[in-house]
Write a structure and sequence with these properties.
The structure holds two protein chains of two kinds.
Chain A lengths: L3 H10 L10 E6 L3 E8 L1 H8 L4 H12 L7 E8 L1
Parallel strand pairs in A: 2-3
Antiparallel strand pairs in A: 1-2
Chain B lengths: L2 E4 L2 H12 L6 E7 L13 E7 L3 H7 L2 H18 L5 E6 L4 E6 L2 H8 L4 H17 L6 E4 L3 H23 L3 E2 L5 H11 L5 E6 L6 E6 L5
Classes of the chains: A alpha+beta, B alpha+beta.
Subunit structure (chain A): Forms a complex with KhpB.
Subcellular location (chain A): Cytoplasm
Function (chain A): A probable RNA chaperone. Forms a complex with KhpB which binds to cellular RNA and controls its expression. Plays a role in peptidoglycan (PG) homeostasis and cell length regulation.
């Protein structure tokens, strides 16, 4: 069961990546926010992060805007493998 | 092996491309030997290059026609929007200078989609542009729009900048505007370009560039 946030991240990231099967999203609880760790292959990391993190920042903006749970902040980390 | 000779590497490549009847993007070049001018013609050596057609995924992607690419881009955006739980329709509108994607949605959701000063829709636009770039769709810039937002924003920026410029003239004090993307700064520049009483400059670095409007006497 994927939460809607995970589905959203996948909908954005999977078509951008070449190594689609390497994409993995794990979640963990941090002090007061829910952290999504997005694991991508090193080859795709450049594209998903973009120049000066332009694409990464755009993905975060879109993902954060879909967090309707006001009690909990969310975070998105992009981790190249 | 497809090797070609020429006085320089460039000439060798050009000759090879002509004989193979392809373009530079479709071959990989290995330099076998660099050309040498020698001294007064002694010891001159011609350059040798090896040209091989690229048969990578990139090439296949390039071959897919523009209409297919546009359909894919549209599907990509529709999928992202579908996950958010609202069934928006996306309308493609190809224009001479750009590909416009118009998101049709209910009015009360529009403000969420746009975000403050277009934050969300600009982010979405960046993502879609990146995807289009992956597909090899590079001829036209892609613009996202929903319910005439871009037009409304442009009108708002024009009236804001005119108001701020008048304020600068009246108070003789500089006004700092909020950071905004290049497209929006351009609208303001174009709006204020005819005015002699003020100067407009861009400050800041990276994605957070902002405009400063100053009275003209401080210019320098």
């Amino acid at each position: 069961m994927d939460s809607s946030i995970v589905k959203l991240i996948k909908a954005i990231v999977v078509p951008l990546a070449d190594n689609k099967e390497q994409i993995e999203i794990t979640t963990e609880m941090n002090d007061d926010c829910l952290v999504y760790n997005l694991h991508v292959s090193a080859a795709d990391a450049g594209r998903i992060i973009g120049k000066h993190g332009r694409v990464a920042q755009a993905i975060r903006t879109v993902v954060y805007s879909q967090n309707h749970n006001n009690d909990q902040r969310i975070k998105l980390n992009i981790i190249p493998e | 092996m497809t090797q070609f000779q020429g006085a320089t590497i460039q000439k060798a490549i050009a000759r090879g491309l002509e004989e193979l009847n392809t373009s530079r993007e479709q071959v990989s070049v290995d330099v076998i030997r660099e050309g040498r001018n020698g001294f007064l013609g002694f010891g001159r050596k011609s350059a040798i290059v090896d040209l091989n057609p690229i048969e990578s995924v990139q090439n296949i992607l390039q071959e897919t026609s523009a209409t297919e690419q546009i359909a894919k881009i549209k599907d990509y955006l529709t999928d992202i929007l579908a996950v958010t739980g609202r069934s928006e329709a996306v309308e493609c509108n190809q224009q001479a200078d750009s590909l416009k994607l118009d998101i049709i949605t209910v009015d009360d959701y529009q403000s969420y989609l746009i975000g403050k000063h277009g934050k969300n829709i600009n982010a979405l636009q960046t993502i879609v542009q990146e995807y289009a770039y992956c597909l090899g769709f590079r001829e036209q810039p892609i613009l996202l729009d929903t319910g005439d937002y871009r037009k409304r924003r442009q009108e708002a920026l024009i009236s804001l900048s005119t108001f701020k410029a008048d304020q600068v003239c009246a108070t003789k004090k500089a006004v700092y505007l909020d950071p905004m993307p290049a497209v929006e700064r351009k609208i303001i520049y174009q709006n204020l370009q005819g005015r002699q009483d003020i100067t407009v400059r861009t400050h800041g670095r990276g994605l957070d560039k902002y405009l400063v409007i100053r009275p003209f006497r401080h210019a320098g």
